[in-house]
Each structure stands twice: as C-alpha cells, then as structure tokens.
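Hey, resending since the last one bounced:
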Amino acid sequence: YNIEVSSNSSMFRIIDARLTVSNGEMTALLTLSGDGYLKLYMGTGEQALSDTDDKCIYYVENEEGKYTYTVPVAALDEEIDCAAWSIKKESWYDRVLVFRSSSLPAEAFTGK
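The structure tokens again:
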C-alpha cells in the first residue's frame, strides 16, 4: 500500500513510501528525495553509536537512481525515532517519522 510518512526534517524528505504487511509485521520501502544518507538506524543516533552496524539499514538504489531503505514499522500514527547517517558530515542525524494510517485505503484494514 502507498502510505504517507511525515518527517520532522526538511532534509529528510520521503518522496514515496510503500507499506507491506506480512505475518503480522509491517515494513515500509522509503524512497528519499536525495542521496545524502548512507544508512538508517531505527532509533536515535546515540543508540546507533552504541549498537552494531548490522542493525543499520543501508540504501538500495532503485531503477531511477533514488536511494531506498526498507525499514520496520513498529506502529502507525506514532512517532518513531530514525537516525540517518550523513555521507558528507559522517555523523548521525536524529529524525522522527510518522506513518499515517489515514492515507491508507480501506482494504488495508480489512485484509482483502
């Protein structure tokens, strides 16, 4: 399903998001407007610094050359911490994402 995702930063602009629900788990394929972030971490930058790199989500370039990231979605309509690693600045930037249930079609809730 296409889903609207808001970000608390204009420097982290999501131009497309597709939500997938499988076996009770939600993930979203996020496409960003730019190519400044190497990886994302679901949590804060401070948490990312103390965690292992295998918990990071690296970009995959799509057919249009845009950076995409497949992220777990813990909940809809709630603020979710997401840290983004800046390629240029070589540091984490804290972002807050909200996946908006109001942007989903009715069939997303009925499972049909």
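The helical segments are 45-50, 107-110.

Sorry for the duplicate.
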